């Protein structure tokens, strides 16, 4: 009978232990520091082992302020001060994606959902889940959704920061950032250049589809003033202010090329010997001396000089019959001339190229030449005149006269002109 009681007692104790353990299977804890595990819930009890910080143990129960734990092959007690429960919801797996376009954030995972805001293209977004093609995100403290269709897991390359600089002189483009490197080309003074980086005094640029380098020493971030080159038509005073009674700073000789930075009230602003000066626009021209194709004509009657190439133009003066006039071009039956320092016009109808008192040959002397390239035939003897046609390279041409570098020829029943520069006497 005694034996039976002992067996029943053992069975009851085993069941109690199993029940206690069974209730603890789902619970686990962690140590917050290195701590002693004791045989009993008492600071004076024997130390079974030392549990290291962050050790995970199975919780079997509580006795007062002591946790009853199972750790590896030992059961013991640890004071609750050094234990942290780990029965928390599992951490959500996050993932970072990048928007491939400006992307709406929705309140629900569908395109009809209320719009909470917009993420700019290239924005990095931390997501907490993907379902039915929509990522869950946090947006302004709320749960939001974005379409996965417009995202990528690949981080976009950072766009290089660009800056525009201007060359302060003609500047070599190099293949490498060193002054002894191969020259790829030259940028003219004042050229605007977009750079993508500066290192060791050299800007990186794109040049003819290649990567090139220019010295930052010869650039500026300040856009230069627009300049214009004019030429003096006579010896011309440089004034300290834009008025004819202002102090004289010096004199520019006739034909001097001058770089100006603006014109106001008839005066050009220039730099003269390191100072700001002004010259009268009345005595300058934009045509480089010696480059204009001029023709001398003679008036066949007293001829009005007009300010415009029309009979309605204001009369600036009168040229006497037989006056020799240097013209700068012919357009729509009017010659352009210089008159009293101004541009003016005379009617070509009342002029001739034959000097009065000389005989005009009844039959012009002809000469045969051959074109050295495909050559335009012009209506007048200048390169800007109307094009009448084209002569193929090697064409034999009978010319009538040669004047100021242009041959006159008969072309399709009309008088035309070809540049002698592109002809030869030899076949």
From TrEMBL:
Statement: the UniProt record of this protein carries the keyword Signal: yes
Alphabetically ordered keywords of this record: Signal
InterPro entries named among the record's database cross-references: Cell_Wall_Dynamics_Protein (IPR052354), SH3-like_bac-type (IPR003646)
Pfam families, alphabetized: SH3_3
Signal peptide limits: 1-26
Residues in SH3b domain copies: 92-155, 160-223, 225-288, 293-355, 364-427
Protein name, entry field: SH3 domain-containing protein
């Amino acid at each position: 009978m005694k034996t039976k009681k002992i067996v029943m007692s053992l069975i009851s104790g085993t069941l109690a232990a199993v029940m206690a353990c069974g209730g603890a299977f789902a619970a686990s804890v962690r140590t917050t520091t290195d701590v002693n595990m004791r045989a009993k819930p008492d600071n004076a009890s024997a130390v079974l082992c030392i549990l290291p910080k962050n050790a995970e143990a199975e919780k079997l129960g509580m006795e007062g302020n002591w946790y009853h734990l199972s750790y590896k092959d030992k059961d013991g007690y640890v004071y609750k001060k050094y234990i942290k429960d780990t029965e928390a919801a599992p951490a959500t797996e996050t993932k970072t994606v990048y928007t491939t376009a400006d992307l709406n954030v929705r309140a629900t995972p569908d395109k009809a959902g209320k719009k909470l805001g917009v993420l700019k293209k290239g924005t990095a977004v931390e997501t907490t889940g993907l379902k039915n093609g929509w990522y869950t995100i946090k947006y302004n403290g709320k749960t939001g959704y974005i379409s996965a269709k417009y995202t990528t897991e690949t981080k976009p390359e950072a766009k290089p920061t660009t800056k525009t600089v201007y060359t302060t002189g003609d500047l070599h483009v190099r293949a490498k950032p060193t002054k002894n490197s191969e020259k790829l080309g030259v940028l003219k003074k004042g050229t605007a250049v977009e750079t993508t980086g500066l290192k060791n005094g050299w800007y990186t640029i794109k040049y003819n589809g290649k990567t090139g380098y220019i010295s930052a020493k010869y650039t500026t971030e300040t856009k230069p003033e627009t300049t214009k080159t004019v030429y003096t038509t006579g010896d011309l005073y440089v004034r300290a202010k834009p008025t004819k009674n202002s102090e004289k700073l010096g004199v520019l000789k006739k034909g001097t090329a001058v770089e100006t930075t603006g014109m106001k009230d008839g005066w050009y602003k220039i730099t003269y010997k390191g100072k700001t000066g002004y010259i009268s626009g009345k005595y300058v021209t934009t045509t480089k001396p010696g480059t204009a194709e001029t023709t001398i004509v003679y008036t066949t009657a007293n001829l009005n000089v007009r300010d415009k190439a029309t009979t309605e133009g204001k009369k600036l003066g009168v040229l006497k019959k037989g006056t020799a006039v240097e013209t700068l071009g012919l357009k729509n039956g009017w010659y352009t001339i210089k008159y009293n320092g101004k541009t003016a016009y005379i009617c070509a109808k009342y002029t001739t190229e034959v000097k009065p008192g000389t005989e005009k040959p009844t039959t012009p002397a002809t000469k045969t030449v051959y074109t050295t390239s495909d050559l335009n035939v012009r209506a007048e003897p200048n390169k800007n005149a109307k094009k009448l046609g084209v002569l193929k390279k090697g064409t034999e041409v009978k010319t009538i006269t040669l004047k100021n570098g242009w041959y006159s020829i008969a072309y399709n029943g009309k008088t035309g002109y070809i540049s002698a520069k592109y002809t030869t006497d030899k076949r």
